[in-house]
Write a structure and sequence with these properties.
By secondary structure, the chain is mainly beta. It has one helix and seven strands. It has a single domain, classed as Roll (10 Kd Chaperonin, Protein Cpn10, Chain O). The relative contact order is 0.31.
């Protein structure tokens, strides 16, 4: 992936899904229950000091994020301060 976030932005996979691996389409409530707030960091901006690429992080499930599709995959962009901790 050629995308590189600016500043202290972090790119993570979008944990929400509306379809299972076997192709079953989920309703909104079930999809919400299936999502997780423990995610692997894919890319970080040059101003990130606490989080690095490949870290596994815990984010607040109420976090506002920028949803984006890059190369046909769904991702979230969050700022570094939204990370609660690193594993």
């Amino acid at each position: 992936m050629n995308f590189k976030p600016n500043g202290n932005w972090i790119l993570i996979p979008d944990p929400t899904t509306t379809k299972t691996e076997s192709g079953i389409i989920l309703d909104a409530e079930t999809a919400r229950k299936q999502s997780t707030n423990v995610l692997k960091v894919l890319k970080v901006g040059p101003d990130c000091k606490f989080v690095s690429e490949e870290d596994t992080v815990l984010i607040d499930p109420r976090t506002e994020a920028v949803r984006s599709t890059i190369e046909d995959c769904n991702y979230l962009l969050i700022q570094e301060f939204q990370v609660l901790g690193v594993f």
